[in-house]
Design goal:
The chain is built from 15 helices and 26 strands. It is α/β, with parallel strands linked by helices. Among the domains are: about 5-145, 3-Layer(aba) Sandwich (Rossmann fold); about 400-500, ANL, C-terminal domain (GMP Synthetase, Chain A, domain 3). The strands form 6 sheets. It has a 9-stranded mixed β-sheet with strand order 2-1-10-9-11-12-13-14-15. Strands 16, 17, 19, 20 and 21 form a 5-stranded antiparallel β-sheet that branches. Strands 4-3-5-6 form a 4-stranded parallel β-sheet, sandwiched between helices. Strand 13 (about 300-305) and strand 14 (about 310-315) form a beta hairpin. Helix 7 (about 170-185) packs across helix 8 and helix 9 packs across helix 10 (about 245-255). The termini are far apart.
């Protein structure tokens, strides 16, 4: 039988599926073009039998039709990042063992010049297809695709080593999508603006595939531009918007430079939406509060990763808590465990582990890493969180964000949030630096703002008072090597290093 995604699309034939600067495309257009692409990929074969097809296409209708065409031919889609340099593209193509490459003409030169393109063509009969080539007019009989088959390989970088290929099946994707559609109440009347990269799970699953599964409209921009996004929001016809914190920061900056009249129109456009979501990184409280004052929306934060889809979410209806990522989504089980794999009580930090039908199948051709990623059937995320009043709060990556200092475990993310509340600090990043006495010292890189210089004594007093609750030992709350002027005051360089 056809994939459920295809069956559902057939129910919305004449409805608009994709809007781009090139025009509007219906679900019928998407089904027809994807079947032509599938026919071209098959070349009279019955089934691609999970051959990997890498594709480098900018966001738009051609991207979606190609992705669907690969799936309908029985292939595994391997999306490439349009901004990646040659070595990274080469790594993904080679590691995935792609036998076919599909490219937009804009990227023909970079792909044709890749060393693996030549070697794979010779050794593995690699095909190179341009999206500008004429598509077949006669549609082949397309294979029946079981949903347990592999569908997608996304490459994710851990904190160490080369990126690993995360393999998800059609069944995994269906579980991830239906979980979000249930939780966020997607319908065919929704219209979402898509501004996210299409080689990451956020853009592929949360926005694109959820929209098309629901029979909604997906308005795709080829690249992010704050003014363009605001213009679309001001049109007042969007119902959903999803982005990362960096994008919200840029949208806030553009709003602040607009005229009062324009600001009013911008805010009214936001108010017409039913939901705005932030994810993929921690959302600073000051950004959340500023966006709420502009848009009237208390951004919905959620937590997920490439291997599991989305696992936790603040509620669509009901109270959302700043700094929290809510509760487990439908079909998802979540637990927190200590270093011995034992469950931790509420209020105690532990590693997030996840189980459910949305969890990925394997790391591509890496059984050792796959086995290491699971504990008794639970996926080990490597992230630390704590449950408070039934809601999860992320403390950071175990490997980099949890700093072990003076016998305490300190969350770099929590310290960053505190430091950002200082009126003279615009932005910061906190890391642990090896130290013989303390194990690790807490190090922060600061971007300063404001007209008054930051004085050493005032900052030390301020930091001691506010960081004490996070059990940062007071003995190491010292500031070193800050550039000072002749008066002994810390000057205002773009970035200063602070050891505390």
């Amino acid at each position: 039988m056809n994939l459920p995604l295809i069956i559902r699309a057939e129910e919305h034939n004449e409805k608009t599926a994709i809007l781009t600067t090139d025009g509007a495309f219906t679900y019928r257009d998407l089904l027809h073009t994807s079947s032509q692409i599938a026919t071209g990929l098959l070349q009279n074969a019955e089934d691609l039998q999970e051959q990997r097809v890498a594709f480098l296409i900018p966001p738009g209708f051609e991207y979606v039709a190609t992705q669907w065409g690969i799936w309908r031919a029985g292939g595994i889609a391997v999306p490439l990042c349009i901004s990646h340099p040659r070595p990274e593209l080469e790594y993904v193509i080679t590691n995935s063992g792609a036998s076919i490459i599909i490219a937009h003409p804009d990227f023909e030169s970079i792909l044709r010049s890749l060393p693996p393109q030549a070697s794979l063509a010779q050794e593995h009969n690699l095909r190179f297809i341009l999206t500008s080539e004429t598509l077949p007019s006669n549609i082949s009989r397309l294979p029946e695709i079981d949903i347990t088959r592999r569908a997608l390989i996304l490459y994710t970088s851990g904190t160490t080593g080369k990126p690993k290929g995360v393999v998800t099946t059609h069944q995994n994707i269906q579980a991830q999508v239906t979980s979000l559609i249930t939780a966020w109440e997607w319908t065919s009347s929704d219209r979402i603006l898509h501004i996210l990269p299409l080689h990451h799970i956020h853009g592929i699953i949360n926005v694109l595939t959820c929209a098309l599964w629901a029979g909604a409209e997906c308005h795709i921009l080829s690249k992010f531009n704050a003014e363009t996004v605001w213009k679309r929001i001001c049109d007042g016809d969007l119902t959903l918007f999803m982005a990362v914190p960096t994008i919200y920061v840029k949208l806030i900056a553009a709003w602040e430079t607009a005229s009062k009249e324009r600001q009013k129109t911008m805010s009214e456009g936001c108010a017409k939406m039913r939901l705005m979501v932030s994810g993929s990184a921690a959302l600073p409280v000051q950004v959340l509060e500023k966006w709420q004052s502009i848009s009237g929306h208390f951004l919905l934060e959620r937590y997920g990763m490439t291997e599991i889809g989305m696992a936790l979410s603040n509620p669509l209806h009901g109270k959302r808590l700043s700094g929290y990522v809510g509760k487990p989504l439908p079909q998802v089980e979540v637990r927190l465990v200590d270093e011995n794999g034992e469950l931790v009580p509420a209020g105690t930090p532990g590693e997030i582990q996840v189980k459910g039908p949305g969890v990925f199948l394997e790391y591509w051709q890496n059984p050792e890493a796959t086995a290491k990623a699971f504990q008794d059937g639970w996926f080990r995320t490597g992230d630390t969180a704590v449950v408070e009043n039934g809601n999860y709060r992320i403390l950071g990556r175990m490997s980099v964000d949890i700093i072990k200092t003076g016998g305490y475990k300190v969350s770099a993310l929590e310290i960053e949030e505190v430091l950002r509340s200082h009126p003279d600090i615009q932005e910061c990043a906190v890391v642990g630096v090896a130290d013989l006495e303390w194990g690790e010292r807490v190090c922060a890189a600061l971007v300063l703002q404001g007209s008054q210089p930051l004085t050493l004594e005032a900052f030390r007093s301020w930091a001691k008072e506010r960081l004490a609750v996070y059990k940062v030992p007071t003995q190491i709350l010292i500031v070193e090597e800050l550039p000072r002027n002749a008066m002994g005051k810390v000057t205002k360089p773009a970035v200063v290093e602070l050891f505390c």
